[in-house]
Amino acid sequence: MSLRRALALVFFPLFTYCQQIDSEVLTGPDRPADAQSWLANLKRWRHEKLIRMGYNGAEYDRPEMKWSQRNFIQPQVMVEDRYLYDPVTRRWTVDRYLDDLDRRYGGIDSVLLWPVYPNIGIDNRNQFDLHYDLPGGTDGLRQMIADFHRRGVKVFWPQMPWDVGTRDVGMPYWDAAAQLVAATGADGINGDTFYGLPRAYKTATDRLGLAIVLEPENRLESEEQLQWNTQSWGYWKYPWVPAVSAYKWLETRHMVNICERWARDKTNNLQAAFFNGVGYESWENIWGIWNQLTPRDAEALRRISKIERRFAAHLVSAGWEPHTPTLQFGSFASKFPLPESTLYTFVNRNAYDIAGRQLAVPLQSGARYFDIYHGVELQPSVEGQTAVLSFPMEAQAFGAVLISAESPGSILTEMTALTGKPLRSFSREWKTLPQRIVEIPRAPARSTEGLIKIPAARFEFRVSGIMVEGGNDEGVDVQYPWEPSARRHHRQVLDLPAFYIMKYPVTNAEFKRFLDATKYRPADSHNFLRDWQNGAYPAGWDKKPVTWVSLEDARAYASWAGLRLPHEWEWQYAAQGLDARLYPWGNEFDSAAVPPHDTSRTQHPPTDVDAYPKGASPFGVMDLAGNVWQWTDEFTDEHTRAAVLRGGSSYRPQGSGWYFPNTYKLNEHGKYLLMAPSKDRSASVGFRCAADMP
């Protein structure tokens, strides 16, 4: 017999019962009859793993870090979310944001604030620059985070290892991240795309005396990282028999937040979380694309999170036993024992209700039995030395049982009130969030100087958004007035009246005349004309397009000039004509028609607007592609504002596919999330104006 065959026979039970779907989860037992031997092998597997890791739980023992062990519900939220920041009053509105979540699904324990992707890379600002460009600067961020803390919510900032093509940070990223959390009073670092945050992040935060929770997005690169990554996200598979969290099994105090951001039905996610006694990433604003929890999922989350918070001490029990035997097919349970009481969490994987006998446990003198989910005390059926507990569970829903000598208190009345209305009565229908286009008032031309007349036409407007994520799902990109919902690809025949458009983008010299005439100063002046000094642009920049101007700044200039910003379809018609060409000059890319790509980390200034005459459109409109992006329409929904940018820019940061996608093509546009002028202004965005016929 070969050595390989002999080893396979010796270790066959361990390999059979401890298979990993991936490094994050372990398969459950194939049959209920296998549960006892499966659990025994799982314990042996853990014992060996911890020895190989040289494991100690020192980080989990730290009192100032224990909050992570009850950090069950954490959304990722875009800083652009209009519930979190009000662009009209220019104020962070933390209470409004939290009140909405309390009302809809019972609130959160922490929040991951997201100020970087998908806008990063439109210019050379790095991820840390984008944090400090948020409204109010460091002081404003510290106060905003204090507002979260006042409501008992911890705050994470993200960290992007792939941001290697923008401005050089000038120090190791772990030191920059530690300085950011220290400056703002944050509580944790989420490692975007990290397979475990390296120890350097813990060393850097410890060096500053910070107790910071590290939370990688992906699985750990090695189990040893479990010792300093006290949280993680879970991108799991969801077999019929619930999988077991490998990291929680190795260290029951490790908190996983299960995430499946694009899913519209969260049943699998919520059941997996409750079965394992872990958390959930209640992520709804996904890069400005709204994927709201359905009413049923929101109500289910409210119920299970209330139970998890109340029994958080049980859920970190070192005696956790997943797949404790149940009495009904399709019912799965986990046992979380403490010395004085034991909690069982149940999930019903069936598509139908189950009731009656659910759990058999050893009879205990003085024990009382509580159906925590429904908030009632149970009277067991005593069968010899066994107590049999009966209770109902809805289809694809949840249950919880507590065995204790003492009543658990108010949780019973709270859960009775919640579960009086069955989950089935809440809608499972997913709905997209409607958008509206912001009106651009008519502006009849007072003068035609610098303008080109674009004749009336029946124009086929065909364009697609080029955002990295979202696929072709409903809700991605923007919703034009003639469409029932937002979508990535758009095609519509439009009858366009004649209009005027500027031959060139607005230049520094032209914008300077506006400032001199109006003394314009924006209310939010951070980054306003950032490349100017003392109210003047650099020498020789007269004919370069003005940048570092927000959409509001551009509108102010247009109003002063008796003009307006162009609608996107007007911009495209002026650039494309009626032959559906891909570029203003034709269907083949011509490097002589645009500035060369700028792949530096410092970013070069734009070229003069008349430097590339080969780039002219059929109507003679110039500098439409490849110099700076240009503002057009704004779209809003209940949670997000975004602008459509056209034309692309010369700036192309290198090293990652996550940077703001660039395009010179006339059948593609960029969607740029809007928040506040301080963050929206960019070295790569300018504008040109249009006017209506008198």
SSE layout:
Elements: H1 3-17, E1 20-22, E2 25-26, H2 35-53, H3 58-61, E3 76-78, E4 85-86, E5 91-92, H4 94-105, E6 110-114, H5 127-132, H6 137-150, E7 154-159, H7 173-184, E8 188-191, H8 199-207, E9 213-216, E10 231-234, E11 244-245, H9 246-250, E12 255-258, H10 267-276, E13 279-280, E14 285-286, E15 289-290, H11 295-310, H12 312-315, E16 321-324, E17 331-337, E18 341-348, E19 357-362, E20 368-371, E21 376-378, E22 381-383, E23 386-390, E24 398-404, H13 411-419, E25 436-437, E26 451-454, E27 457-465, E28 489-496, E29 499-502, H14 508-518, H15 551-560, H16 568-576, E30 629-636, E31 641-646, E32 668-674, H17 677-680, E33 685-686, E34 690-692
Parallel strand pairs: 3-6, 6-7, 7-8, 8-9, 10-12, 12-13, 27-32, 30-33
Antiparallel strand pairs: 1-2, 2-11, 4-5, 14-15, 16-17, 17-18, 18-24, 19-23, 20-21, 20-24, 22-23, 25-30, 26-29, 27-28, 29-34, 30-31, 31-32
Features:
694 residues, TIM Barrel, Immunoglobulin-like, paralog of FGE (formylglycine-generating enzyme), 3 domains, six-stranded antiparallel beta sheet, 17 helices, 34 strands
Fraction in beta strands = 15-25%
What does the largest sheet look like? 7 strands, mixed
Low-pLDDT ranges: 1-17
Examine the coordinates and then state which fold CATH places here, giving the name of the CATH topology of the largest domain.
paralog of FGE (formylglycine-generating enzyme)
Got a strand count? 34
